[in-house]
Amino acid sequence: MVPALFLTAWTVALATSDAWRTTPDLNLMVRRLTGINFAGAVWLVLITTIFALFLHPLQLGMTRILEGYWGSSWLSRILLRRGITHHRKRRTKLHRRYEKLTAAKDEILLAQLVARYEERQAAGKRHQGDPRLWGKEQLDHGLTGRLSHDKAHAASGLHAASAAAEIAFERYPEASRIMPTRLGNALRSAEDAIGKQYGLDAILTAPHVALIAPGEHVSYLQDSRQQLDTAVRLCVVALIVTGETAGCLLTDGLWLLIAIAPYLLAVIAYRSAVAAADHYMAIVGTVLDLNRFKLYESLHVKMPMNTVEERWNNEKLMAVLARQRGSNIRYEHPAAGTGVTPATPPGTP
Fold first, then answer.
1. Neighbours of 81 (CB within 10 A)
2. Alpha carbon distance 310, 56 (integer Å)
3. Adjacent-strand bridge partners of 331
4. Model confidence pTM above 0.85
5. Cα 74 to chain center, whole Å?
6. Alpha carbon distance 282, 44 (integer Å)
7. Can you tell me the distance from the alpha carbon of 229 to that of 222, in angstroms, rounded to the nearest whole number?
8. Which residue of 27, 254, 263, 296 is surrounded by the most CB atoms within 10 Å?
9. Of 49, 61, 79, 70, nearest to 232 (Cα)?
């Protein structure tokens, strides 16, 4: 209802100020709004409800559009190519920036380690040798430990910046899987990563897990999804309002600048949608981690004794769930007369 209410209120403000046919008159708008009676308020609530009802079934479509699923027409291909090219370049820049910042940070920390080594060597104290001659594992450990030292403040800004660049880079999938929008890349990156340590495909297994997970898990998952849906809906509504405002004020000079306000709201809502997508997909991964054995039990497949066997079993299970003809897995049915699947073997991860 909140995005629909925003759309209704802004449209009413434009209509009551006569912005659609002349320069907006704020005094006229105030007089008309203060003169709304009970019947008028009921009509506004009814219009808001109608907007909300129309927006709700379009939720999946709105999310798909913001993800970057734009069809296969000639115009779509042009937009897709430009969007994907932009994000492929941005992904490369982020990786280079991360490496540059990390190298600069390590250079400062290494210089401090070398200075400490030379001081201890000159004083005749025990030392671990010249850091410039350390192996990679020992050097990485030394640099990481040096970050906690009081004299490492000079590298703290570089360390924080490199971490931010790494997080932004990890929001991208492999180069061949890049999407034309930030939201699409955030979701696809998580889709490609969730469950892979077990040999599970998140897209294939998430619907099954959602049906067998405990109520509190599903409720938490739905709450996080609702945050994503609300941010997406608010973004789309703000874009609609931006177009509506620009159309009404196009010939009214500086009044056109009012359209910047809903546009900025759309940008904020979109960034919020990307953050909400990160949170939602993290919850999807957690729910899958906690309920994958229930999935195996529900599908009557053999329980693995370790992660190696689990990945081997799931390679066949994913083929079955993907409806590949000729795929085959071994079933383990409940013991006769019990109606229940045998318990998960002890010691199974």
1. 11
2. 40
3. 301
4. no
5. 29
6. 39
7. 10
8. 296
9. 61
Can you read off the two tokens belonging to residue 318?
């994913």
H helical segments located in 35-73: 38-55, 59-67
**Structure tokens of 255?**
């009044």
* Mean pLDDT (10-residue bins), the chain, 349 residues: 81 82 80 77 82 80 91 92 95 94 90 85 79 85 84 86 91 92 93 92 91 91 91 92 88 86 94 94 93 91 89 90 85 65 51
The residue type of 109 is L
CA distance 192 to 187: 9
Whose structure tokens read 């940070």?
105
Longest pairwise C-alpha distance within the chain:
91
Query: What distances in angstroms separate CA 166 from CA 91, 102, 169, 175, 221, one per listed residue?
Result: 10, 10, 5, 16, 26
How many Å apart are CA 242 and CA 234, to the nearest integer? Answer: 12
Separation between Cα atoms, residue 295 and residue 288, nearest integer Å: 9
Q: What is the dihedral sign for C-alpha 11, 15, 19, 24?
A: negative
CB 66 within 8 A of CB 183: yes
* Gap between the Cα atoms of 71 and 204, Å rounded: 23
Task: Give the three-class secondary structure for 301.
Answer: strand
